[in-house]
Amino acid sequence: MARRAGAPEVNAGSMADIAFLLLIFFLVTTTIETDAGLDRMLPPIEPPETDVIIKQKNIFQVLINRNGQLLADDNIIEIKDLRAKAMDFLDNNGDGTCTYCRGRKIAESSDNPTKAIISLKNDRETKYSTYITVQNEIVGAYNDLRNRETQRLYGQDFTTMEATYLNPETPSSVKDELKEKVKKIQDLFPQKFSEAETSTSN
Amino acid sequence: MSKFAKKKSGDLPAVNTASLPDIVFMLLFFFMTVTVMKDSTVKVQNTLPNASEIKKLEKKDRVITIYVGAPTREYQSTFGTEPKIQLNDKFASPSEVGDFILMERAKKAQELQNVLTTSLKVDKDANMGLISDIKQELRKVNALKVNYTTYEGDAFNNLK
């Protein structure tokens, strides 16, 4: 009797078809891009126990009405001018204690960046897109100032530094080093940005 | 002459496709590793506004998403054309947001429960009234970290 030459070979011709089927399934269900957006902290609902008295000159009040018009410190302004106005306010250095500021030291404007507060108030009828634009400009004002200081101290942009710090793929040795730098810059221009409750104007 | 004529004889050789499965498998594994399953169908119009000062929303397991927008055409007959909130797969009123957040938070691992971010995917045509209501609800359940999810782009495109 003739010996068999091993087991017969399995026909793998349809393997490609099966693999294609799976591939198409994963292609359809996949979403590669990560979402991105503006990070904000909401104020806690419990009011603070001690009332802090804030000088009027340390608050930069931004109001958006239902038509998307902007009122910043009682002046009607265009949204494109908001970033420069907010930067002037934050960088003002009224009491001269801020050594790195380059503001004009106007007595009626903010004392120093750690005291300066931007308050944003909107109407219920305000469009979301307008609101996001205004938020973007205010965050942009902070980022521009922080970039300026980071350029001076470390020779790079704050936004790129922070992105590297937040990236989960960054090795922890680099992260520890960046943590201090990020913290330091954040302390130079702390984001004191309050979102007041919506007015129900009519 | 006969030298050249010889070469032309015979059929075109078939392309060897033996390595095709390998290539396909390679692609397959790539997509299998990067894939994130869509967890809910969006039932609202969801054109996000543009912003330039954005931060990436890393780690999807720490994110709870709330959609807001006008219902898409197939739902307009039932739910109208006013912007609505969508939680998971159904439309909801602002008062349900708090419970939803608490429920989603309870589903997450213990160590993640304090670091959750709420991603607000809001259509650019929505009004702030609804958003304010959501924000108020989020404050009530102490979900203070929010991310206004946007597309990357010039923020002034929103005003057009």
Question: Can you put this structure into words, describing what you see?
Answer:
The complex is a heterodimer of chains A (202) and B (160). Chain A has 202 residues and is α/β, with parallel strands linked by helices. Chain A has a domain at 56-195. Chain A is built from five helices and six strands; from the N terminus they run H-E-E-E-E-H-E-H-H-H-E. In chain A, strands 4-3-2-5-6 form a five-stranded mixed beta sheet, covered by helices on one side. In chain A, helix 2 packs across helix 3 (128-154) and helix 4 crosses helix 5 (172-188). The longest helix of chain A has 27 residues, at 128-154. Chain B has 160 residues and is α/β, with parallel strands linked by helices. Chain B has a domain at 50-155: 2-Layer Sandwich (Nucleotidyltransferase, domain 5). In chain B, strand 4 and strand 5 form a beta hairpin. The longest helix of chain B is centred in the first third of the chain and has 15 residues, at 20-34. The radius of gyration of chain B is 25 Å and the shape is elongated. At the A-B interface, helix 1, strand 1, helix 3 and helix 4 of A face helix 2, strand 1, strand 2, strand 6 and helix 5 of B. Strand 1 (36-41) of chain A pairs antiparallel with strand 2 of chain B, so a sheet runs across the interface.
Tell me the helix content of chain B: 25-40%
The low-confidence parts of chain B are none
Mean pLDDT of chain A: 81
Strand sequence of the main sheet of chain A, in spatial order?
A: 4-3-2-5-6
Q: Layout of SSEs?
A:
The complex is a heterodimer of chains A (202) and B (160).
Chain A (H helix, E strand, L loop, with lengths): L14 H15 L6 E6 L17 E6 L5 E3 L2 E3 L4 H9 L26 E6 L5 H27 L3 H9 L5 H17 L4 E3 L7
Parallel strand pairs in A: 2-5, 5-6
Antiparallel strand pairs in A: 2-3, 3-4
Helix pairs in contact in A: 2-3, 4-5
Chain B lengths: L1 H7 L11 H15 L15 E2 L3 E2 L6 E7 L3 H7 L4 E4 L2 E3 L4 H11 L9 E6 L5 H13 L4 E8 L8
Parallel strand pairs in B: 1-7, 3-6, 6-7
Antiparallel strand pairs in B: 3-4, 4-5
